[in-house]
């Protein structure tokens, strides 16, 4: 969420436990009556829009958040088919490729949820592959509604910079061969 929505020095930076035990739990319990300004609704996240289009669309609603900030939102997962246990994680022309998952544990060592990490892959724009990261939080007793985060991958360089680095490396190799 944009830092402009908070007093100077404050940031929205919740822990995994806070995201699951407070925000997601209250949203599941209270349905649409629970609203939280830092966490938006994106009912069709797993749909036809590319991650960068979702980012741009919700960035405007979040007081034009900065490039390095994280977007938080509630969404519903879609099953591959009505009887399937697996979920469809297609987004736009690509898909969310799973990286890892871990339990979200409360102070009493009880598991309250699951956090999964994903990377965008296989889209129509090769420059966007790996450029987007998503985290999905699920309550262990309720797996349809999830809380997700979306952010740009800080390790993924812009295509223009990659091209310049490749040209430079090629020139260096060419001059060494003389």
TrEMBL record:
It is found in: Nucleus. The keyword Nucleotide-binding does not apply. InterPro entries: NAC-dom, NAC_dom_sf. Pfam families: NAM. Keywords: DNA-binding, Nucleus, Transcription, Transcription regulation. Residues 6-170 form the NAC domain. GO terms for molecular function: DNA binding. The keyword DNA-binding applies. One of its GO terms (cellular component) is nucleus. GO terms for biological process: regulation of DNA-templated transcription. This is Putative transcription factor NAM family.
């Amino acid at each position: 969420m944009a830092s402009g929505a908070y007093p100077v020095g404050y940031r929205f930076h919740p822990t995994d436990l806070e995201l699951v035990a407070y925000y997601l739990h209250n949203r599941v319990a209270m349905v649409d009556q629970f609203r939280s300004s830092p966490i938006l609704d994106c009912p069709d996240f797993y749909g036809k829009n590319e991650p960068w289009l979702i980012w741009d669309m919700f960035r405007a609603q979040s007081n034009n958040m900065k490039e390095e900030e994280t977007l938080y939102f509630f969404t519903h997962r879609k099953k591959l088919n009505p009887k399937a246990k697996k979920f469809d994680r297609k987004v736009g022309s690509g898909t969310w490729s799973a990286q890892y998952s871990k339990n979200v544990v409360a102070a009493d060592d009880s598991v309250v949820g699951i956090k999964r990490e994903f990377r965008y892959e296989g889209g129509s724009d090769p420059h966007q592959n790996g450029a987007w990261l998503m985290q999905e939080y699920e309550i262990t007793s309720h797996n349809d509604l999830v809380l997700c985060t979306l952010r740009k991958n800080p390790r993924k360089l812009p295509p223009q910079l990659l091209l310049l680095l490749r040209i430079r490396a090629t020139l260096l190799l060419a001059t060494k061969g003389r």
